[in-house]
From TrEMBL:
Swiss-Prot/TrEMBL cofactor(s): thiamine diphosphate
Protein name as annotated: Transketolase
Keyword Phosphoprotein applies: no
Listed InterPro entries: DH_E1 (IPR001017), THDP-binding (IPR029061), Transketo_C/PFOR_II (IPR009014), Transketolase-like_Pyr-bd (IPR005475), Transketolase_C (IPR033248)
Species name: Spirosoma radiotolerans
Length: 801
């Protein structure tokens, strides 16, 4: 590894390094060529490769230190291999979707190829020492999706350097010396995420080194259609720092110029690391020797002239000429390296394919044997043998082939009582459990720090416990959190100086400093990105989305990146970010406060918490801070001015996740609800009692997870009627609750009336009190729907209204 000092490339170049770089570039190219062949030959479904970008990535890797981060995309195979973090067998294993972590440690076969990750959690799911690793955040496919979190990774370095209270977190940083290498394609810089991040990085002055791999195309669309002035470095020229203004450093370099690339990256990394200044490296004149991906051929959209230019400017080809011209090697030596590199790539491919097939062979052979044994002396022998024969003949079988054959056989054997059927069933049960682990594990933390393991600690109150407004309760709570845990930082729009728009953090910046409680620009996507990156580096950010509906701006980052992180690495990475927002019964078309169903559909992998008041919210924050999963918590906007009693054990009390609260007991009908609707339903229940109807009111408290101990079904066993009420659109979160209870808890067995939902209207709520009344469920609606359910059951006692 080259010493990271500002040296001219010629000073640091040795013949040995040059030839080893050439070997790596050549190997990587061979891997790309063989990978494409695998897709064309049917061994893999899709392939995307880093050919044409080898040299730039080798140069970037030369400036990469242990503890640094890569936040890149699917072209980075050479980068990661140069760091020693990718063996070619692993590359092929991912191409084939090999599910064993030993073979494919990046994603255990869960991602398409070209998605690289460092395992920075141990087998238990606990942090390893990141400062000893060459860290790659697991890549994601949506273009530019890797960028927002890169801001947060870099921002963490700033915190580690500037907040000395963090200096003992030596598993994550040494004085904030770690820099973040983000990579992005030229076309993807058209995305808003990119611009938002570059602006924020300049504002924040963080060590983000952004490389643009510019091959002139985004699939078929050329750069002139993508970027103003056809050049991202020209477009960003106004971001360049100068003697008056802070900003960023901008480098341009040709992607085939080995010596210039090395020098550029040494300089860029040095500036970034020592000065904490963001840097853009615009790597120009890169090529795509095989086109964009295996999905098409670039001959369709590139002119012959362009194709000829690309062939001439192939970085590996020019590197070769440069080596010869400068006398670092003679042709024979390079041919030897090339022959060896070809062999290395070939062997990696063969061994990865063999390992992939072997990993499935045991189950496959066993299924064939069991089918044969069962067919012997069986009335359905012919049918079973036909199933077996079809399975035996499968070309390149995968797991589903054997599973599907056995399931089919079990249908044939539905009336059979023999031991063959039992053995087939046992085989299926075993493989089902193993496949559940292969394909469905680690959506949430499975570590000893899972928030699901945090036990509830009730809030304690004394005779002296003060009664105060909800927002003041939160203020007191957050003050205790900042005092007890240096890792906790809060940031968002208006969070710092004024302490958020509802004053939950008021006065705390003054007390704990701007580095702990921080105002941000209006940029929801990178607020979340900032939080994700910090949470990936051992900090405990609480980031704020000012009002719930604005979460739409950042939904892509939440759903594509944060929600999938732990799952897509099969437990190799985590980001326990807490997102704080306020919602429920806001007023206005863009202030509904209630798009909960959208969250439930998009954010599996996060916990979604809907506390009815600030005491419950504080208890949830404590639980989340003890845990290691990400979560979204929606506070009730209309609860900040309601009086609550301040618990005496603010630092200790915890509200467990997935445990509903029974707010009122009753025997006639169960109403399941959450958030601000709790108050409305409770009030309705009071009036219903006057009409002779006893309603049991249940606050689910958390939608993800949902009622883990099945409290609701116990209530329904008693009442035999259920209504799911909320303020989301019809078929939104109310339908989700109904599915969880009627299907998930088998409630239909105990129901004497049809299960019902009460939700808002399908449109967004108009502004004002009338807008609210006429578009969201109000107390009259609750009373009337409950009454009508009772009236249907007992029209004599409850005549129609
Ligand atoms: C959000 C999103 N939109 C579209 C795509 C489909 N897509 C995949 S790669 C790509 C082109 C990216 O081009 P560029 O950023 O220049 O990277 P390159 O592949 O050329 O290295 C597109 C449009 C996607 N993955 N994500
Ligand atoms: Mg491109």
């Amino acid at each position: 590894m080259i010493a990271n000092e500002q040296l001219r490339s010629t000073d640091i170049l040795s013949r040995e390094k040059i030839l080893s770089d050439y070997r790596l570039a050549y190997e990587s190219r061979q891997v790309s060529l063989l990978g494409r062949r695998d897709v064309m030959g049917g061994r893999a479904k899709f392939g995307i490769f880093g050919d044409g970008k080898e040299l730039a990535q080798i140069a970037a890797a030369s400036a990469f230190n242990r503890g640094d981060f890569r936040s890149g995309y699917y072209r980075d195979q050479t980068f990661v291999a140069a760091l020693g973090e990718l063996r070619w067998t692993e590359f092929f294993a991912q191409l084939y979707a090999h599910t064993d972590l030993e073979a494919e440690p990046n994603t255990a076969g869960r991602s398409m190829n070209g998605h690289f990750a460092t395992r920075w959690l141990d087998d238990q799911g606990l942090w390893r020492n990141q400062t000893e690793l060459y860290n790659s955040v697991c890549d994601i496919a949506p273009t530019a999706g890797q960028v927002p979190r890169a801001l947060g990774l870099a921002y963490a370095s700033k915190l580690f350097r500037n907040n000395h209270a963090l200096s003992d977190l030596t598993n994550f940083s040494h004085n904030g010396n770690e820099i973040v290498f983000a990579t992005i394609g030229d076309a993807s810089t058209s995305q808003g995420m990119f611009w938002e991040t570059m602006n924020a990085a300049g504002v924040l002055q963080v060590p983000l080194l952004m490389s643009v791999w510019d091959d002139g195309y985004g699939i078929s669309v050329p750069v002139e259609y993508q970027t103003i002035k056809g050049s991202i470095s020209k477009a960003l020229a106004g971001f360049q720092r100068d003697s008056h203004d802070k900003g960023m450093e901008i480098f341009t370099v040709k992607g085939w110029d080995y010596a210039a690339l090395l020098e550029t990256y040494q300089q860029a990394a040095q500036i970034c690391r020592t000065q904490h200044v963001p840097v853009l490296v615009h790597v120009q004149e890169l090529t795509q020797p095989q086109g964009h991906s295996t999905s098409g051929s670039h001959e369709r959209y590139k002119s012959r002239q362009r194709l000829t230019w690309e062939a001439e400017h192939d970085c590996n080809r020019i590197f070769r000429q440069w080596i010869l011209e400068n006398g670092y090697a003679v042709n024979d030596e390079l041919e030897t390296i090339e022959a060896e590199a070809k062999q290395v790539a070939k062997r990696a491919r063969i061994s990865a394919w063999d390992a992939f097939q072997t990993s499935m062979k045991g189950d496959f052979d066993e299924a064939l044997d069991l089918l044969q044994q069962t067919a012997r002396h069986n009335a359905k022998s012919a049918e079973l043998m036909a199933i077996r024969e079809e399975l035996r003949k499968t070309f390149s079988p995968v797991r589903r082939d054997a599973v599907s054959a056995v399931r089919k056989a079990l249908r044939v054997l539905r009336n059979d009582t023999g031991s063959g059927r039992q053995r087939l069933k046992a085989w299926l049960e075993r493989t089902d459990a193993e496949n559940a682990d292969r394909f469905s594990s680690h959506l949430y933390s499975q570590s000893p720090e899972s928030p699901m393991l945090v036990e509830g600690v009730p809030a304690q109150f004394t005779n002296e416990s003060p009664v105060l407004d909800g927002y003041l309760l939160l203020q007191r709570y957050f003050e205790s959190v900042f005092a007890r845990d240096e890792r906790v930082v809060a940031l968002g729009e208006d969070v710092g100086q004024i302490g958020d728009v509802n004053q939950g953090f008021a006065g705390l910046q003054e007390k704990f400093g701007e580095i702990r409680i921080t105002d941000t620009g209006i940029r929801e996507t990178t607020i979340i990105g900032q939080g994700i990156g910090m949470a990936m580096r051992g900090l405990r950010p609480i980031v704020e989305i000012q009002y719930f509906d604005y979460v739409y701006y950042t939904l892509a980052t939440l759903t594509d990146d944060l929600a999938t992180l732990h799952y897509r690495t099969k437990g190799g990475q985590k980001a326990p970010l807490i997102i704080r927002t306020r919602g429920h019964r806001l007023e206005g078309i863009w202030h509904s406060g209630s798009p909960m169903g959208t969250m439930l559909s998009s954010l599996r992998g996060l916990h979604v918490l809907v506390p009815r008041n600030m005491t419950q919210a504080a208890g949830f924050y404590n639980t989340l801070l003890k845990g290691d999963d990400p979560a979204l918590l929606i506070e009730s906007l209309n609860g900040y001015r309601l009086k609550e009693t301040l618990p005496a054990n603010l630092n200790e009390f915890c509200v467990p996740l997935g445990v509903p609260d029974i707010l009122r007991s009753g025997s006639d009908l169960t109403v399941v609800t959450y958030g601000s609707m709790c108050r409305i339903v409770l009030e309705a229940a009071g009036q219903l009692a006057e009409l002779g109807i006893q309603v049991e009111v249940i606050d689910v408290q958390t939608l993800l997870p949902f009622d883990v101990h099945q409290v609701i079904i116990e209530s329904i066993k008693k009442t035999n009627r259920v209504l799911f009420a909320d303020e989301d659109v019809p078929g939104g979160a109310s339908a989700y609750m109904m599915q969880q209870v009627v299907e998930g808890q088998n409630a239909y067995r105990y129901l004497d009336s049809a299960p019902a939902t009460l939700s808002a209207k399908a449109h967004r709520p108009p502004y004002g009190s009338d807008g609210d009344y006429f578009s969201k469920p109000n107390i009259d609606d609750v009373i009337e729907i409950v009454y009508s359910m009772m009236s249907e059951a007992d029209p004599v006692r409850f005549p129609q209204l």
